[in-house]
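pls ignore typos typing on phone
flavin-adenine dinucleotide + seq
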Amino acid sequence: MAQLPKRAKVVIIGQGGIVGSSVAHHLIEQGWDDLVGLEKSAIPTDIGSTSHASDFCFTTSHDKLNIYTTKYSQAFYQQRGNYVKCGGMEVARVDDDERMDELRRKVGSGKAFGTNVSM
Ligand SMILES: Cc1cc2nc3c(=O)[nH]c(=O)nc-3n(C[C@H](O)[C@H](O)[C@H](O)COP(=O)(O)OP(=O)(O)OC[C@H]3O[C@@H](n4cnc5c(N)ncnc54)[C@H](O)[C@@H]3O)c2cc1C
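k done
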């Protein structure tokens, strides 16, 4: 294991997950240096949520920031030739009207925030 420095401008705890990786990327992009990333498992993580994710980029959300980060991520990975655009589906069972209503609301929110989701 590398020797840890006594001081650093930034310490990122959880370096192996997508959030720690993203924080490091954006800080370095903005000119920060002297960063230390701490990770208790592995980089990339082998126990964190990131290692379990199915890599679905949700473009339906009631959260504008979520949609922004999804669109940002799609462009980010596309620029690096590392994005498989295969589409996806969210489904409701027959007679599950509540779930169907929620899907309709999510599509409405997605469209309001500029995605091209459809029902
Ligand atoms: C089964 C599953 C499927 C999912 N599918 C999707 C999907 O399709 N699309 C989507 O957008 N999202 C999906 N998600 C959600 C997404 O995976 C998480 O929101 C995201 O990975 C969280 O990233 P994170 O970096 O915050 O956490 P993590 O990936 O959990 O990373 C945190 C890291 O911190 C480390 N750590 C914790 N404590 C310490 C400590 N004290 N010291 C040092 N290191 C520490 C851990 O070892 C870990 O590596 C899914 C999640 C799961 C569980």
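Residues 13-14, 16-20, 38-41, 45, 47-50, 52-56, 58 surround flavin-adenine dinucleotide (CB under 6 Å). Residues 54-119 form one domain. more later
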